[in-house]
Automatic annotation (TrEMBL):
DUF4440 domain: residues covered: 31-123
Organism, scientific name: Amycolatopsis decaplanina DSM 44594
Key words of the record: Hydrolase
An annotated Gene Ontology molecular function: hydrolase activity
Record-linked Pfam families: DUF4440
Keyword Hydrolase: yes
Protein name: Putative hydrolase
Superkingdom of source: Bacteria
InterPro entries per record: DUF4440 (IPR027843), NTF2-like_dom_sf (IPR032710)
Gene3D superfamilies for this protein: 3.10.450.50
Length: 135
């Protein structure tokens, strides 16, 4: 993903390796596809640049720390399967409640927030993969 500023707006371009979606209900599946490439760089393209990731211990991280937190889960070397439960949209924001499993390793219900960018594509703003299980 490349970001550049024009005036006060930040414009993002996206690598076509894992296409983003114009449908917020499809964003968890975009995440699944990106995760299952095994590439932290590709996975990071489903996030806004300043997006927050809530680690299992409840600590909120962004930027390089977000990539490292996701990298720890990617290091399991197993695919993820997502099963969206609920999608609630208000304008350019979406609340996503998503069950997910990495067979034999991790399973939880995520509580995530995505935002539609100026390009019409959805990206995570808050990724809380362990949802209410987070302290």
């Amino acid at each position: 993903m490349t970001c550049f500023a024009v005036g006060f707006a930040v414009h993002m371009t996206h690598s076509p390796s894992v296409p983003l979606t114009t449908d917020p209900a499809g964003h968890p599946f975009v995440f699944q596809t990106a995760f299952n490439t095994g590439s932290a760089e590709i996975l990071d393209t489903v996030y806004e640049p300043d997006a927050v990731f809530v680690r299992r211990d409840g600590v909120r991280v962004s930027g390089a720390e977000r990539r490292a937190a996701n990298g720890g889960i990617l290091a399991l070397g197993q695919p993820i399967k997502v099963m969206p439960r609920q999608v609630h949209v208000a304008g350019d924001l979406a609340l996503l409640i998503v069950d997910w499993v990495i067979e034999g390793h991790l399973a939880a219900t995520a509580t995530d927030v995505a935002r539609r960018g100026e390009d019409g594509l959805w990206r995570y703003v808050i990724d809380n993969p362990f949802g209410i299980g987070t302290p």
